[in-house]
Design a protein that fits this description.
alpha/beta; about 325 residues; 9 helices; 6-stranded parallel sheet; L-2-Hydroxyisocaproate Dehydrogenase, Chain A, domain 2; Rossmann fold; 2 domains; 3-stranded antiparallel sheet
């Protein structure tokens, strides 16, 4: 692999997710420069001050506020700006509100940083990743959505807790929409190179369909419960964003479940959805249309239809690709 390099990272949107990601990035030591951009400049300045005061506990880097011209030369621009979903608001309504935000942000980023990689964190992330690609005019491999990286982490955490193993030793994926229609790939879930069924037989655990349904429900509904308890989720998604950026900046070729443009995966094309994808300095190096059971394929296509219905409700510009 290529040697590591340390170019700057820009964060657009310094709410809870953007600011927490900024801290994770500071602690990681991945970059020598973090630029914070927010329509509320005072908020961005406050976050920059707070992050700078943490610097003596980590390592010296340059953290400051900026504007879109400061995106020039950035390796990655992370977009975490946008509104949260209101009670009773549909995903299409939320998408339409945040699409307006993206129409202000993405063209300016693309103008000043034509060679950057866009990393989208704003929800609903799959339609907005697609919109960001179309607005930017970038090659699709340079527009990445956080997608189901967090859902996959939740699944691995719960499986690790259930079977008493380090979640980093669990290989299992959530694919499709980052949302209620997401799909757990139980057919390929594995621990120590064994299917869950073989692992359970070896260790004396049980692996039933009912247990799978219970674990999946906990994954799918986790955000709702966290929001009910504390108002928002931000630590885990910030860690996921930091992991994606690490794979980009260090050219690691890491397989991560992120959202990107699909071309004929189980009949799904011209849509951004999550699958395991190889991430490196070029962005999305490969999209892995992984084996799925027949039932998983059907759920995956149904999930695509959910995202398609939202995208169809947005005014998406044409691109020559």
């Amino acid at each position: 692999m290529a040697t590591a390099y340390r170019p700057k990272v820009v964060i657009v949107g310094t709410g809870l997710v953007g600011a927490t990601f900024g801290y994770a990035l500071l602690a990681s030591g991945l970059t020598p420069e973090i630029i914070l951009i927010d329509v509320n400049r005072a908020r961005a300045e406050g976050e920059a001050m707070d992050l700078n005061h943490a610097m003596p506990f980590h390592r010296p880097i340059n953290i400051r506020t900026g504007d879109y011209p400061d995106c020039a030369g950035a390796a990655v621009v992370v977009i975490a700006a946008g509104a949260a979903q209101k009670p009773g608001e549909t995903r299409l309504q939320l998408a339409q509100r945040n699409a307006e935000v993206f129409r202000q942000i993405v063209p300016q980023v693309a103008r000043h940083a034509p060679d950057t990689i866009l990393l989208i964190a704003t929800n609903p992330v799959d339609p907005l990743t697609y919109l960001a690609w179309r607005l930017s005019g970038f090659p699709p491999q340079r527009v990445i959505g956080a997608g189901t990286i967090l859902d996959t982490a939740r699944l691995r955490y719960l499986l690790g807790a259930r079977y008493d193993v380090d979640p980093r030793s669990v290989h299992a994926y959530i694919v499709g929409e980052h949302g209620d229609s997401e799909v757990a790939l139980w057919s390929s879930a594995a621990i120590a190179g064994m299917s869950l069924q073989d692992f359970c037989r070896l260790t004396g655990h049980t692996c039933t369909e009912e247990e799978e349904r219970e674990i999946f429900a906990q994954v799918r509904d986790a955000a709702y419960h966290i929001i009910e308890l504390k108002g928002a989720t931000y630590y885990a998604i910030a860690s996921g964003l930091e992991r994606i950026v690490e794979s980009i900046l260090r050219d690691q070729n890491t397989v991560l479940s992120v959202s990107g443009l699909l071309k004929d995966c189980y009949g799904v094309s011209n849509l951004c959805l999550s699958l395991p994808m190889v991430i490196n300095r070029e962005g999305i190096s490969r999209v892995l249309c992984v084996p799925m059971s027949q039932a998983e394929q059907e759920r995956f296509r149904a999930s695509a239809q959910v995202v398609r219905s939202v995208v169809d409700g947005l005014e998406v510009p044409e691109v020559a690709y």
